[in-house]
Amino acid sequence: MTTQTNENNIIIQANDLSIYYGSFRAVKNVNLGIQRNKITAIIGPSGCGKSTVLRAFNRMNDFVQSAHNDGKILFHGQDIYAPEVDPVQVRQMIGMVFQKPNPFPKSIYENIAWGARINGYKGNMDELVENTLQAAALWDEVKDNLKKSALALSGGQQQRLCIARALAVKPEIILMDEPCSALDPIATLKIEDLMRELSVKYSIIIVTHNMQQAARASDLTAFFTMDEDRAGLMVEYGETSQIFTRPKDKRTEDYITGRFG
Amino acid sequence: MISDPFAATEHNRVASGLSRRHRTGKIWQAIFFSATVIGLVALVALLWTVLDKSFSYVAIEYKVDPATLSSKPLQELTNAELVNLLEANLSKNRFRTLDRKQTLTERTHADLLTLIYDNIVEPRALASYSMSQWIASSQEIRAEVAEKYPDAKLEFRAWINGDFLIDPLSGDPLLVGVRTALMGSLFLILITIAVAFPVGVGSAIYLEEYADKNKWYNRIIQTNIDNLAGVPSIVYGILGLAIFVRTLAPLTSGALFGNADANGRTILSAGLTMALLILPVLIINSQEAIRAVPNSLRQASYGLGATKWQTIWNHVLPQALPGILTGTILAVSRAIGETAPLIIVGAATFITSDPTGPFSKFTALPIQIYNWTTRPQEVYRNIAAAGILVLLISLLTLNAAAILLRNRFSRQHA
Amino acid sequence: MPRDTLTRQIHHLLDEVLLLGSMVEQATLSAVDILRQRDLKAAATLYENDQLINDKRFAIENAILILIATQQPMAHDLRLLAATLEIITELERMGDYAKGIAKVTLQLKDADINIPNRDLERMASQAVNMLHRGLSAFVNEDPNEASAIAGEDAVVDDLYNHIYHHLVETMIANPATIDQYNQVMWVAHNLERMADRVTNICERTVFIATGDMLEMDTTDDEESDGE
User: Fold this and answer.
1) Can you list the positions of beta strands (E) in A44-181?
2) Are C and A neighbours with ≥3 CB pairs closer than 8 A?
3) Mean pLDDT over residues C34-46, rounded?
4) Cβ distance of A91 and B305 shorter than 8 Å
């Protein structure tokens, strides 16, 4: 298992992470160090546990009643599953964008402001809304309609709004769970460009089943697959350029070239 | 040209069965349409009966014909003239008794008119003929009335009118009103909503958002609620009688709050019983509404670092509220029309004082309607019909208000 | 197994590359043979026929571009197609060498000089043999065979040095023939370069199989190629 050796630049690290649903082990022994200010893609066939791992990074698995973990996830050296850690705090620092755009059924403005407000933001809200919408490359399209319902936006705009909403909470890491699977190709490319811009300030982890997207948009790629016992495991992790041209593992090669299964 | 061996069969495959399918479709359409028509006819028949009975021709016999009392119609007389009329036609004692109760010269015009009707005119309804009867055979009715009640006058009367709404209950069918019952019903519903809504929505939130559905006790609670929704209302009445009227009498009678000479048969007991009755339906409907809120919304909220309560309060409830309100409307509509449990927890059938607080004795519209329909006199059919109209109208008003409220919420969250 | 379409099209592509390779082999052997016979007519035909090799190369290149655009190959498939693009360029250049030899034949006409035909034919057959086996190794993705073939380049280099010295000595002895012998020198040079390009093909073969680029071409000059 390759992990990047640049230890100082690791922002979040999974150590021997296994995730269980009840007695079923969904993911086993993952060692994955996510680098700061990079876009890391997690790819793999359906059921390989890539979304499960992503959700483990901000404790979204807590909402699945039977889910529990072995191993550690270290964020700034602190295990986020330690008993004294508040999962709500973890989710503020590690934001998430979901598969289907899911803006709140409120105005565009309120969508951004709500998260900041519940997290105790005291500054100028108008400014925050404008800045985050700018950062999400949405400001020019919506600046005259901030009071309009977010549901009136197109799918791509909604997804960028969801990204802006996540930014407003000032996270360090943004998790993206197949953020473009419900979007058309042009909207997809816009999101990918946006991810590139955001990676200057944030670290991004994206789960995608679109290999071309991982190849286009990410710096590093982790390939997951299923073992015979149906548990997901990480097969290979490395620079995206290497994974897509010279994968080291036969299973990666078969998946990348489309000769899986 | 070479004939294509497939052409013929293909044609048959395309065309065969089409007319048969269309025919089947038409038959089903007709069946569903007639189902709708049957329902519609039933509804129209109901409305027609009620409206027909609410207006009728009544044979009224006066002790003293109001026309002989004064040259002008009584309504046009001044207060002073009315007092004079009373003095002229009543015995001195009777007049003094009335004056002592409340000084006659200080009474309202309407009050004075009522006094004159009650004490001097003393009308009696002898027979009543609904509008449809009248239209079908007005001549025969005139002849019959002239023969049977030579002293009676045949008058048109709209049973549902302003006086009917604002008059209290009365033993005299011509003077009876529904104010007491209407107030009782409204008071009752208010208590019911105030108790059932928060408890019902709260239970629904617990069961949907907090309860671990794999735990045996949560499953038992859920199963019980589902079953309770089907329990007959009379059972709730018995329950209310045992718990609220008897066991909790000190509380429901108001004895604890210094309300002497009262028993547990109060409007509070009835309201609590009604709340109990609609609670299962309310919980189930609220659960449905909460369950219909897409999970993606909750995840979005959690993903921003919101707590469970922030998520429920800011996103789940506002989104579910239209559905919850719809469920509440349905449940409250049921409560408004319920009679059986009220009878059991002891609603009064005859009471002339309006309810003044939760510890009052009370009556309710359905109780009165039920009561009126059991009376032998023909005129009470008319009064019952008018009562039903009042009940229907208040129900529709309540629903309209709730629907407006719901639409406002849906628009906000569209 | 999925991707049957891509796999089938890649096989078809490799057949075309082998066809192109055999055209080049044929042209090289013919060129040296024609020089020995001084058959000017055949030389002119050979010179013209280089166009067929060029056409074939462009057809294959186009097919590869279409495959990349439509099938989005990754990893091994991508390396194979990228390498094939390189390899057909190498083959086309080898075709140019054969064409260059034909041109020398045309320019020498029936000049009375002593051409080392036997040595040139040995060089040619050695280079063609390397090319043939090199393409087989490419199609079979055999990195070991490819490395071995690349090592044989030394044999051609030795032959070239032998001819070079022989020609230099001849020119010194008879300066009036420098011009003609210089032409013959080009023939040897072209054959030597051809073997170098076979080592390039072998490098690509190793790359396809392992993903690593190894420098096998021991000659340090990557000079532009004269015709």
Assistant:
1) 67-75, 78-79, 94-97, 173-177
2) yes
3) 95
4) yes
A261 contact C CB<8A: yes
Residues B287 and B370 in one domain: yes
Specify the pLDDT at position B10.
57
Residues B149 and B65 in one domain: yes
Question: Which residues on chain B are in Cβ contact (under 8 Å) with A149?
Answer: 414
B225 min Cα distance to partner chain A (Å)? 24
Distance set, CA B192 to CA B184, B189, B361, C86, C116 (Å): 12, 5, 16, 85, 117
Q: Which residue has the tokens 């042009």?
A: A186
Which residue on chain A is closest to C211 by alpha carbon?
A: A246
Residues B228 and B152 in one domain: no
Q: Where are the domains of chain C?
A: 3-224
Residues B224 and B283 grouped into a single domain = yes
User: Is residue B349 included in any domain, yes or no?
Assistant: yes
Please report whether residue B31 resides in a domain.
no
Query: How many domains in chain B?
Result: 2
Question: Measured between CB atoms, does B319 come within 8 Å of chain A?
Answer: yes
Task: Assess whether pLDDT exceeds 60 at residue C222.
Answer: no
Instruction: List chain B residues with pLDDT less than 70.
Output: 1-15, 259-262, 411-414
- The radius of gyration computed from the CA coordinates of chain C, to the nearest angstrom, equals 19
Q: How far does A57 lie from chain B, in Å, by closest CA?
A: 11
pLDDT, tens digit (0-9, with 9 covering 90-100), for C102-133: 999 999 988 888 899 999 999 999 999 999 99
Shared domain for B252 and B368, answered yes or no, is yes
**What are the chain C neighbours of A257 within 8 Å (beta carbons)?**
3, 73-77
How far, rounded to the nearest angstrom, does the alpha carbon of residue B366 sit from its chain's CA centroid?
Answer: 7
B215 and B124 assigned to the same domain: no
Does the domain formed by C3-224 have CATH 3.90.780.10?
no
Domain span including residue B248: 179-412
A92 close contact with B: CB closer than 8 A: yes
ipTM: 0.90
Contact A246 C77 (CB under 8 A): no
Q: Please tell me whether residues B280 and B332 are part of one structural domain.
A: yes
Q: What is the mean pLDDT of residues C171-188?
A: 92
- Is residue B25 situated within a structural domain? no
pLDDT of residue B11: 60
For the sheet containing A94-97, what is the strand order? Answer: A78-79, A67-75, A10-21, A24-35, A232-239, A220-226, A39-43, A203-207, A173-177, A94-97
Examine residue B163 and state whether it is found in any structural domain, yes or no: no
Give the pLDDT confidence of B4-37 residue by residue, as tens digits.
555 555 566 666 788 889 999 999 999 999 999 9
CATH number at residue B401: 1.10.3720.10
Residues with pLDDT less than 50, chain A: 1-4
Average pLDDT, chain C: 91
Question: Parallel, antiparallel, or unpaired: how do β-strands A173-177 and A203-207 relate?
Answer: parallel
What span, in angstroms and rounded, lies between the C-alpha atoms of A180 and A184?
8
Among the partner-chain residues A212, A253, A261, the one whose CB lies closest to the CB of C75 is A253
Query: What backbone phi and psi angles, to 5 degrees, belong to B246?
Result: -90, -65
Chain B residues closer than 8 Å to A91 by CB: 302-305
State how far residue B204 is from chain A, nearest Cα, in angstroms: 19
What is the per-residue pLDDT for A15? 94
Question: What is the pLDDT, as a whole number, of residue C224?
Answer: 41
Per-residue confidence (pLDDT) for residue A1, from 0 to 100? 41
CB within 8 Å of B42: residues ≥ 6 apart: none
